[in-house]
Design brief:
The complex is a heterodimer of chains A (185) and B (606).
Chain A (H helix, E strand, L loop, with lengths): L6 E7 L5 H7 L4 H8 E3 L13 E7 L2 E3 H13 E7 L1 H5 L11 H11 L21 E6 L9 E3 L6 H12 L15
Parallel strand pairs in A: 1-2, 1-3, 3-5, 5-7
Antiparallel strand pairs in A: 4-6
Chain B lengths: L5 E6 L2 E6 L4 H7 L23 E4 L5 E3 L10 E3 L3 H17 L15 H8 L16 E2 L5 E4 L8 H10 L4 E4 L6 E4 L16 H5 L5 E3 L12 E6 L8 E7 L2 E7 L12 H6 L12 E4 L2 E4 L2 H14 L5 E5 L8 H7 L5 E4 L5 H6 L7 H7 L2 E5 L3 H4 L1 H14 L2 E5 L12 E3 L6 H10 L6 E5 L6 H16 L7 E4 L6 H6 L8 H6 L5 E7 L14 H6 L3 E6 L4 H5 L2 E4 L8 E4 L5 E4 L12 H9 L1
Parallel strand pairs in B: 1-5, 16-17, 16-23, 18-19, 18-21, 19-20, 21-22, 23-24, 24-25
Antiparallel strand pairs in B: 1-2, 3-4, 3-5, 6-7, 7-10, 8-9, 11-12, 12-13, 14-15, 14-25, 26-27
Helix pairs in contact in B: 4-12, 8-19, 10-12
Classes of the chains: A alpha/beta (185), B alpha/beta (606).
């Protein structure tokens, strides 16, 4: 076991499907190698909620509501290198499809008009009013809120791509993207 | 024609030979130098709008688009540099931000998209501009393909293809600036368009997933498919097809750009009706038991046919053939012939006379391309030979060729004609107009179809020959015969008799046994029943055998149905209107128990 202090990493998922985190888990045995060099702190996988001061913050998902924005800004404040993991964080991707419609129409469709809904109600119109994070008019990628240092495209990026990006960062380099390792889907 | 002057251009330090008039891009490509492009397509006039092919010319501070800049002899061009790479990146980033290019849900992702490819080539993992997320519509109203404006990069390849290849100009760009949008006619949709021919050339030209084939979407990435080059058997033009298959099914059908007659272009029939139409395929032999047709084995079915053939020695036996059969089937027909009292080929209306003196045109597409005057006599290429119609439209619209149409039926080409005569006129004023129209025509082409082989047709032909004989200068018209049915001319030449009137042929002496080789006719042979009295005459036949690929009103009448292979399962040759034998190559193994016509008929010989 080396004496070098482990690199502290925190991750969070915003408006995402968790697929990018699943892709991280897809590293399989390489997670054991990673664990020699990296300490996972807050993360949906470790289920530690409070983000401490870390070296690397990894964000999956776009910003769709005020809670996402809050988590994102917290992560940015508490990390040195912020990584946008996956297309949702980088471009908006699937969650951003709702930008084609007015928010009120999206909510009405989702909570009242869906075919299987029996008794629909709009959120914010009942006792939980105020507790449900307010939805933003538009879903946006994370770099429209904070400075992002590293982008890993993919939907999800596959484990090899994530491994490449993380090992480059651990070696003190920025990952280089080219025709050989880029994939937008 | 004087050969163009040879020039030399240095591109990225490499001395490249070219010809005066060629663009920088053409010379670069001929010398294996890569310059990225998006809006460029070799067969279309250059647009220069995507700004990806920009290059530097030493001595000038500007960058110019290589696709639309003629190369200057002795110039030095830089096609690869950090400055150019950054400029191209900027353009791509703006493109990505402008509309909704969401790769994960697009059928062109993972290798089939030009925009995605350029993103990878330029190492783009994020963009600097905010995404606009415009709300753009999707037009799914057309029968075979859709248009998703969210994926469009306004490269105008579809617009130029529709104008220059199909010649109908259905597509154009409407509005201005950021509101630019590809538009169908003037604000119509594909489903309501008056001009769209559903040739699908725009879809083939689209670099992104904006235009996409409905039946192909998500059925397999083209770069993971196998390809087979074969020939379309829907009409006598005989266009080359490039068929993509994966896991035992056809994913998509495009025109073969290596085929000389169509050079990658197709019409709705070859491009879509060959594979994207739902039809009831006959998968196994059927034998009638009482009221119903029940599945049987080949042995049972062929046995039943042989019994019926040989049973009654005084039976009148006939055979009707579809003009879609391959040339190689003729020898088997001839061997079978003696067993039948009469054998006839069911050609198009009025086509028998055409077939009896079969003529083929030498390089007709080039003739039409070079024509400055085109006369259509008794033919409807816009219905029967649509890729020829596209070529005619190209000459008329892009090269100002004169067009004169003599046909009693209206057609979609009429709007392009200088003279359009539905009724033959012998009036002096009319023929003066014809003469005046043809006055400056030096390279005329006369396209004629079955309706030209009639008294009216001959009258007009005589008059036209008169007009040309009196003209000074120019050539006599190049003749282009345009048959209607696929292989009828060659089959007739090989000795298969074309029929003028099927009802008369059936009725001249009532048949007891009839074998109809409907082959892979898309309607299952049902067109046979369109003739007056034919249905009644067929019902009176004691024993009816139908060899077909698809269920139809005809197969319903049969005592035995033999499943025939379709175009994608056949091998052999068909002869197109140029007289060229073109190969049919099997794309997939025959479905179910279907067999090629030739094999079925050979089995009957035994």
């Amino acid at each position: 076991m080396s004496d070098k202090p482990k690199v502290k990493v925190a991750t969070a998922w915003l408006a995402g499907c968790s697929g990018c985190h699943m892709s991280v888990l897809d590293l399989d045995e390489r997670l054991i190698d990673l664990a020699q060099l990296v300490e996972f702190t807050a993360s949906p996988i470790t289920d530690v909620k409070e983000i401490p001061e870390v070296d690397v913050g990894i964000i999956e998902g776009a910003v769709c509501n005020e809670e996402n924005e809050h988590v994102l800004r917290t992560m940015r404040r508490r990390c040195k290198v912020l990584v946008a993991l996956g297309d949702c964080a980088i471009t908006g991707n699937i969650p951003a499809l709702r930008n084609q419609f007015k928010l009120k129409d999206v909510i009405a469709r989702g909570f009242v008009e869906t075919e299987s809904t029996q008794v629909g109600a709009l959120p914010g119109s009942g006792p939980a009013n105020g507790d449900v994070p307010k939805l933003a008019d538009r879903v946006r990628p994370i770099q429209e809120f904070v400075k992002v240092d590293v982008h890993i495209p993919g939907c999800p990026p596959d484990a090899d791509t994530i491994w490449y990006a993380l090992t480059e960062l651990l070696a003190g380099r920025m990952p280089q993207w080219s025709e050989t390792n880029l994939k937008y889907d | 024609m004087i050969a163009p002057k040879q020039i030399t251009v240095t591109i990225d330090g490499k001395r490249c030979a070219g010809a005066e008039g060629q663009t920088i891009l053409e010379i670069a490509r001929a010398n294996d130098i890569y310059i990225p492009t998006l809006c460029y397509l070799k067969q279309l006039s250059p647009w220069g709008g995507c700004r990806l092919c920009i290059v530097e010319i030493v001595g000038s501070p500007k960058v110019v688009p290589a696709c639309s800049t003629p190369a200057t002899d002795g110039s030095e061009v830089v096609a690869t540099s950090p400055r150019l790479r950054q400029l191209r990146r900027n353009t791509l980033e703006l493109l990505f931000s402008e509309r909704n290019h969401i790769c994960p849900i697009c059928p062109m992702n993972n290798g089939d998209c030009g925009l995605q490819h350029q993103g990878y080539v330029h190492g783009i993992e994020t963009i600097r501009y905010p995404y606009l997320y415009p709300a753009l519509p999707v037009d799914l109203s057309g029968p075979y393909f859709g248009l998703d404006h969210n994926r469009c990069i306004l490269c105008t390849r579809c617009v130029r293809t529709c104008e220059e290849m199909e010649g109908v100009h259905t597509l154009d760009i409407a509005h201005r600036g950021i509101h630019n949008r590809v538009v169908v006619d003037i604000g119509a949709s594909f489903g309501t368009s008056d001009t769209c021919t559903s040739c699908g050339a725009c879809v083939a030209a689209c670099p992104t997933g904006a235009l996409f084939d409905k039946a192909a979407a998500f059925r397999g990435k083209l770069n993971t498919c196998q390809t087979v080059r074969t020939t379309c058997s829907e009409c006598p033009v005989g266009c080359g097809l490039l068929v993509y298959t994966r896991e035992n099914r056809i994913v998509e059908v495009f025109g073969d750009d290596e085929a000389s007659v169509n050079r990658g272009h197709l019409c709705r029939r070859g491009r879509y009706e060959t594979w994207a139409e739902p039809r009831s395929r006959i998968l196994q032999p059927l034998v009638r038991r009482g009221e119903k047709l029940v599945p049987a084995t080949w042995d049972e079915a062929l046995g039943a046919v042989r019994n019926a053939m040989n049973n009654e020695s005084d039976w009148q036996r006939g055979m009707l053939i579809s003009p879609r059969i391959t040339n190689e089937t003729v020898s088997v027909l001839k061997a079978l012939g003696p067993g039948y009292d009469r054998v006839g080929m069911v050609v198009g209306t009025g086509e028998a006379a055409f077939c009896r003196s079969p003529e083929f045109a030498a390089d007709p597409m080039r003739s039409i391309e070079e024509a400055d005057g085109i006369i259509i006599l008794g033919a409807q290429p816009s219905r029967d030979n649509r890729v020829v119609a596209a070529k005619i439209r190209h000459s008329v619209r892009r090269q100002d060729a004169k067009l004169l149409i003599f046909h009693s039926r209206k057609s979609d080409l009429d709007v392009y004609a200088d003279v359009c005569a539905g009724v033959v006129s012998l009036e002096r004023a009319f023929w003066k107009r014809v003469t005046d129209t043809l006055k400056d025509v030096k390279h005329p082409v006369l396209v004629y179809g079955p309706a030209a082989m009639t008294p009216i047709g001959y009258t007009v032909l005589e008059r036209l020959i008169g007009v040309f004989e009196k003209k000074r200068g120019g050539h006599a018209p190049q003749l282009v015969p345009l048959p209607v049915t696929t292989n009828s001319l060659a089959l007739s030449k090989a000795g298969v008799e074309p029929l003028d009137d099927v009802a008369a042929w059936l009725g001249v002496q009532p048949l007891d046994f009839l074998h109809v080789v409907a082959s892979d006719e898309p309607d299952g042979g049902a067109r046979l029943l369109n003739g007056k009295h034919v249905r009644r005459l067929l019902e009176e036949i004691e024993y009816l055998v139908v060899q077909a690929s698809y269920e139809s009103a005809l197969t319903e009448l049969a005592d035995v149905v033999l499943p025939a292979a379709v175009w994608s399962e056949k091998s052999g040759t068909i002869t197109n209107f140029e007289g060229r034998e073109l190969p049919l190559r099997p794309v997939l193994p025959p479905r179910g128990e279907a067999r090629e016509d030739r094999a079925i008929l050979e089995a009957l010989l035994k």
